[in-house]
From TrEMBL:
Residue stretches spanning the membrane: 451-474
InterPro entries xref list: Methyltranfer_dom (IPR025714), NA-bd_OB-fold (IPR012340), SAM-dependent_MTases_sf (IPR029063), TRAM_dom (IPR002792), U5_MeTrfase_fam (IPR010280)
GO molecular function (one): RNA methyltransferase activity
Name this protein carries in UniProt: Putative RNA methyltransferase CT0009 isoform B
Length: 475
């Protein structure tokens, strides 16, 4: 098996990691507002504890341990080294969750978060942690996954250099090429902001367009500018925010409880014109019904930006919170935008999958080719599992004999075949199928592969006779 390289970028969700023994102990003296030492191994709901965050765990939550018992607790927005008071909110199996009440000693590697929404938004929980510290945390988590899920020993990882150093991204903001914002009838405000809230007689002033509050499907934090997406996409977001609440326009945000309302989501995708290398923006309005005459004002508003080359309307009549519609209409410009990766051109439609970090995708695909040790003599067979729109396999197709890609999503397979045609690649076959339901005949559908690309380490058992298995973690 070849070496495994992996990449990361700031502000992305963190993998779950194993719980380590306590890295530090707490003072024997308890703060005045902390409950006495628990008699039970399990802390009770509502109990306050003095804790020190040891590391980052699932979804960027701080991992701590109760001093007297070693019981594991997780705290949202607690960072390594932070000494704080936490109140137990719930117990889940072999761990509990706590809410931070107050900080006693600030965390290590703390920085000022540049985004005003960072303390409340669900998208950037570790923005006030230095990028270098984020890299260390993610590298530790991937290593632990390889040991406990991949069943590698630490000695094997070190001896054979299976785990290579993490590859940082050269930019930490404005790197995402896709963002999805939700409309809602009520703005969500954090508790500390409620006292400053101004209630207007006009209910439209409370309408929200933004990102969901952490852990809630029905609470939306109003956002005027997002540091994750491109500058042209932020201009579009600001333009929509400026006008959509005007009662004369007749817009109503979708209510997930009553299932009434017109506007559901605003999806913004950014690509590049392959000729001019200038940004291309797709604006996708997801609505509960098809009313193009009602959307005309918003279409005219955003289409004045030269970067906007496509305005799409996805119509989703279901009560679900998805942005994928049963019907899709092009209201302005093209039905897709383009992006270039490693010299290949890819068409990106409203609902097609594409790596959200274009900068790291470019680096990633080069690393895959290097790790696989592609000979470049057109002799090798590549099996691309969970191939999506075929981006990885197609970048290798120029140097191998044939690429076979498998993916369960029909639209992704359609896009993969289109991308192959656009780039004049004829030695790539893409098959729609569920890899969770394969049988012993699966290996008879293609020649013996020399290189297997998989997004999951556990899938390496599918092909027992392989030369390389490349396992990638991009989350």
């Amino acid at each position: 098996m070849t070496s495994i390289s992996y990449l990361t970028n700031t502000l992305l969700p963190l993998h779950i990691r194993r719980f380590r023994p306590s890295l530090s102990t707490l003072s024997c003296s308890l703060a005045s507002d902390v409950d006495p030492a628990p008699n039970s191994y399990f802390p009770k709901r509502g109990q306050t504890l003095e804790l020190v965050c040891e590391s980052l765990a699932f979804k960027g939550k701080g991992l701590c341990k109760v001093t007297q018992t070693g019981f594991v607790v997780l705290c949202d927005r607690a960072l390594p080294g932070e000494h704080f008071i936490g109140r137990v909110t719930r117990k889940k199996g072999n761990y509990a969750e706590v809410t931070k009440v107050k900080t006693i000693t600030p965390p290590r590697d703390i920085v000022d978060a540049p985004c005003v929404y960072a303390p409340y938004c669900g998208g950037c929980k570790t923005q006030n942690l230095s990028y270098e510290a984020q890299l260390r945390a993610k590298e530790e988590q991937v290593r632990d996954l390889l040991i406990h899920v991949g069943k590698f020993s630490l000695q094997h990882l070190q001896l054979h250099a299976v785990l290579k150093p993490i590859v940082p991204c050269r930019i930490q903001f404005h790197y995402r090429n896709k963002m999805e914002f939700s409309f809602g009838p009520q703005r969500w405000l954090p508790k500390e902001s409620l006292q400053d809230r101004i209630v207007d007689d006009d209910a439209n002033e409370n309408y929200a367009l933004g990102l969901h509050a952490p852990g809630f499907f029905d609470k939306i934090l109003n956002v005027d500018n997002c540091l994750l997406q491109s500058h042209p996409a932020n201009k579009v977001l600001a333009a929509v925010q400026e006008c959509w609440r005007d009662p004369q326009l007749g817009f109503s945000p979708y209510n997930v409880h009553s299932h009434k309302g017109f506007l559901k989501h605003l999806m913004l995708r950014t690509g590049r014109d392959v000729t001019t290398d200038q940004p291309e923006v797709m604006v996708n309005f997801v609505t509960s019904s098809y009313k193009p005459e009602l959307l005309k004002f918003l279409v005219d508003k955003v289409s004045v930006f030269p970067e906007v080359v496509s305005v799409i309307n996805n119509v989703n009549t279901s009560v679900g919170n998805t942005s994928v519609g049963e019907e899709e209409y092009t209201l302005y410009g093209k039905s897709s935008i383009t992006e270039t990766l490693r010299g290949l051109t890819f068409q990106i439609s409203a609902n097609s999958f594409f790596q959200t970090n274009t900068y790291q995708a470019e680096v990633l695909y080069k690393l895959i080719e290097d790790c696989a040790g592609v000979k470049g003599d057109d002799s090798e067979i590549v099996l691309d599992l969970f191939c999506g729109t075929g981006t990885i396999g197609l970048t290798l197709a120029r140097s191998v004999r044939h690429v076979y890609g498998y993916e369960v999503v029909p639209q992704a397979i359609t896009d993969a075949r289109l991308n192959a045609k656009i780039n004049g690649i004829q030695n790539a076959t893409f098959v729609q199928g569920d890899l969770n339901k394969i049988d012993e005949n699966f290996g008879k559908n293609f020649p013996k592969p020399d290189i297997v690309i998989s997004g999951f380490i556990a899938l390496s058992f599918l092909i027992p006779t392989y030369s390389y298995v490349i396992c990638i973690s991009l989350n």
